Amino acid sequence: MNTVVERELELKLVLSPERSIPVPARLSYSTGDPYAVHVSFHIASDTPVNWSFARELMVEGVFRPCGHGDVRIWPTRVNSKSVVCIALSSPDGSALLEAPTPQVSAWLERTLRAVPPGSESAHLGIDDGLAELLTPLPADDLWMRDPWPSDESDDDAR
What we know:
By secondary structure, this protein is an alpha+beta fold. The chain is built from four helices and eight strands; from the N terminus they run ββββαββββααα. α1 crosses α2 (101-114).
């Protein structure tokens, strides 16, 4: 069974130290993809922007600066409020977003209850998938028979 944990919230897109604009977003986590979190921005528009990255990165970023390259996350305070900063970078541009820490933390706790850290691989279904692929089917014995006589067959029988 696949469980999805979602949370809609308003992030702030930081344009300058003095100016930011609200951005509606949806945080999403699925037990079918247990290592990743997904963030959709502009969820009410025809073309939302989607990002996916490691859940572990988001969890760590609530407590301390982490990440390299395209996704960096760190905690801070803005106007006496606790926020999680998310810096995203791509060839199309970059963005700095602020998310309210209490809402992000509550959502992350729900994902951690759905799939505790260290148990992600059990939710991938790799063992079940391999077993299904390797289970012989009734017709497999037809394919496994040798349709040609062996070179070791008795020449006198011909």
